[in-house]
Design goal:
With 275 residues, the chain is α/β, with parallel strands linked by helices. 44% of the residues lie in helices and 21% in strands. Strand 2, helix 2 and strand 3 (59-62) form a beta-alpha-beta unit.
């Protein structure tokens, strides 16, 4: 019998997105016992009420304050019992068979603890949904790859996209759609709640790898990610949250570089003003 699956969806003031996400999951469920747990970060746009109206029996945790992405996901994990856990952004859409494909890829790799699919934007373009460990050089490499994907000559773009569509072991996969074994997640203490938003997925995968597990990129599973909604509606606050998480990550993993990063951000007027 296939392992049970819990799908954890965190949402904050994203009523239309989360309704579309949940509808896509219910329209294309995995071929195994599964449940959905939604954790609402104190939305004020009627999100909880809309979810309850559509799916009265769905497990919904209504937090009294916005505790951030990592903390809310931990609430969902602790409030569920699936052997496998899928962390799924509220701005994603699931197609038929894609969740099951991701689950089977993870189950077929006993040494792997986590797996992520190929993420496509709303325009059908592939996202950089996996990559090297965050570091000064790792971030530079990721920026170069993103720039080439967007602006390089078409033949070079095609070659890069082909390389990005190979199944491979990676340092991290995006938390927008991240499948993990519960036992491994609990072994590393779940997600680090010092990250309010951003970097928590890279940190989580780093913890899994440090515990001896592998992380897989599974391009055969494809999920649509309508990213950028938070940045579009609150760009200043979103940028500040990103810089807070970036600094927290460097202090934890690269303390020697953290001071230089802080100086760099202050020089550019981008320091979030904490620490």
């Amino acid at each position: 019998m296939s392992a049970t699956l819990t799908i954890v969806v965190v949402t904050f003031n994203a009523r239309d997105d989360v309704i579309a996400c949940l509808a896509s999951v219910h329209a294309a469920p995995p071929d195994r016992p599964w449940t959905v747990v939604v954790v609402d970060n104190a939305s004020t746009d009627g999100t909880p009420e809309a979810i309850t109206a559509h799916w009265p029996a769905l497990s919904l945790h209504r937090l009294t304050a916005n505790r951030g992405f990592a903390a809310a996901n931990n609430v969902g994990i602790r409030g569920s019992d699936g052997v496998l856990i899928l962390l799924l952004n509220s701005d994603t859409l699931i197609g038929a068979g894609q969740i099951e494909r991701l689950c089977r890829a993870l189950e077929s790799s006993p040494r792997a603890a986590a797996a992520g699919p190929r993420l496509l934007g709303g325009d059908g373009r592939q996202e950089l949904s996996f990559g090297p460990m965050i570091s000064p050089f790792g971030e530079l490499r990721q920026r170069v790859r993103a720039g080439l994907l967007a602006h390089a000559p078409i033949p070079l773009q095609r070659g890069m996209r082909a390389r990005l569509q190979r199944a491979q072991e990676v340092d991290w996969v995006s938390g927008a759609c991240l499948l993990v074994r519960r036992a491994a997640a609990e072994q590393v203490g779940l997600l680090d709640e010092r990250y309010f938003m951003y970097c928590e997925d890279v940190d989580f995968c780093a913890a899994l790898r440090a515990a001896g597990h592998r992380v897989l990129f599974v391009p055969d599973a494809v999920v649509t990610h309508l990213r950028g909604r938070s940045r579009a509606t609150a760009p200043i606050a979103t940028s500040r949250r990103y810089r807070e998480s970036q600094l927290a990550f460097y202090r934890k993993h690269h303390p020697r570089w953290a001071r230089w990063l802080a100086r760099y951000l202050r020089a550019r007027g981008q320091h979030p003003g904490r620490g």
